[in-house]
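Q: Hi! First time doing this. I have a protein sequence and I read that you can turn it into a structure. Is that right? Here it is:
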Amino acid sequence: MAGQEKPVAVITVFSAAAEQRVLDTIAAGPKPPIANWFVGTYGINKVTAAKLAEAGCKYAPVFCIQPTTGKRARMQRRLSKEDAAVVGDGEHAGEVPGTSEGKMIPTRDRRVWGVELGRRFRDDIRAARSQGLQIQTWQFDEILGECRGPGGSNPHREFIGGVLRGIAEGRPRLGDKPEKGFVWFAFSSLKDLSGRPIAGDLQRFWEDLDAAALFLVGEEYPSFTGPPATAAAQRSVGHTSLAGSTGAIRRGLGQRYILGMTPGWLPFAALGGVVPGSQAATVNAWRNGFIDARIATRRPRGFAQFNFVKDNVRAPRLEDAVRSLHRACERSGL
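A: Yes, that's right. Below is the predicted 3D structure, encoded as structure tokens:
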């Protein structure tokens, strides 16, 4: 899927009700579609896969490493007896150490367990495809803010880099081929790491990310306050740094960069959001101004919306957020 000619639009949804409204809003957009649309849910859903195929969208389920939302994969490897015998390595077939205690980072063998967890995500994709589900790619949630910091030995980078490598490469012994997906990148970590000198474990981290990322989704998540152009300049720093890097890997990731946003109606420090009491027309105008300024500052390869829950899915807020991607892709001029 490399070398897409159209802009890319990505949406992560959390509920069946929101999912249908997202698809209806996509369908109500321009004909033919301006963008290549990818929609994902947390975990793989047979009904969703069928709906997306019928709607002409591409299915990109989302995989999470948190001890709660990612617990099913973290607790054990799920393979047939025959496949398990081919894979071997029974030592890493059980619980990712620390999961039951709510620990994100394994208490030992962090990279090995990261690779194993990523491979378990590919196990789920492989199993679903064997049942006829159309899954075009995947989404990874997320490169955490804890990955920031100077080169050395960062345990979060060690583990998450392993997960990225594992999901990208899968299990070659079971016939998996390298497969890239969408990698979401927390703003604080992206801003910090994009311009850091390569030292310690940073080279391997960027190599892991490059091997996994069909597109990198920068979680810019602006607060809908102040001049949109000022916010665009502030939130684009990671993208700009990547695109201007002297390193081929980071420069390439900058060329595969997608602007990540939220509908904005759930104000939260890490997710940005609107000023309480804002009117929909004001929010939409600010969002459009931000998108236009971002395109002018450093044009992304595509656009994404995340966090379709609670107030973010109330009508017409959900529809406005999806329509903003239609407009963004149209104005990007790709």
